[in-house]
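Deliverable D5.2: sample structural annotation.
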Amino acid sequence: MQQHPQAKIHRMFELIEPIATVTFSEVANEAFLAVGMRNYWDGYFAGRAAPLGQAPAEVVHAVFYNFADGEVARHIPWVWGKITPQEAIAVRERGSTAALRHMIGELADSPALVRAADLATRAALSAPTEGRPLYAGLRALDVPEEPLARLWHATTLLREHRGDGHNAALVAHGIGGTEAHALMAVSLGMRAEEFGRIHHLPKARLAAVVDGLRRRGLLDAAGRFTEAGRRTKQRIEALTDELAAPAYDVLSADELDELAAALEPLAAAIQAADH
């Protein structure tokens, strides 16, 4: 088994993330609105939670980790009265593939994309499932045959494998879901109250989260990282990369480099389309 340098594992995250997250773009959202979802978040929860089956909101909340209390329950189980998990999986794949084709244009039909899909799929199907509930749910699904859909599916598997590991790293460091968003905001030079994923929460709730991080010595009076806070964030990110690495052991060093080279123009095209 090939052990790859951590910097290369992190680089794979940077390249895979834009491809997998086309799922959360407007084109994919429209596919869910067309089948009766009321809003973006209905489609988000239906599509992302579908591999877990009709799991109750409490289970989805636990697996997704970083949503505030009650947010999942506004959508699950309501969405399952409109669409089955199997239908949601099909809508998500169809909408995501359409979004990907829209963003990368002629690259969608290139031989390099077929090769990237093959390498990414090998990696995506090779990682251990223990302790990775969302990844395990995705692994149970059929792999699409069409190369573009297969690439999206493989990057989604790799993203959720990493995400399950990231949650484990957060748990190991005693960082809750809302706290994780607050620390992410600080790492981006923002106040926690300004961060998109949590700014809508009640001000008292956010203040309590930030105060808790201050009491633990992770943030200073101004809401910036202390040295201990910076080190904790770095340890979590390093452990996340370390836990993501087993997915790539099946690829040789040359194959990993080849996969990165094939993904770079795709990721660049998606990021350009987003701006």
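Annotation notes: DSSP finds twelve helices and no strands in the chain. The two ends are 39 Å apart (CA to CA).
The annotation will be released with the project's public dataset once the embargo ends.
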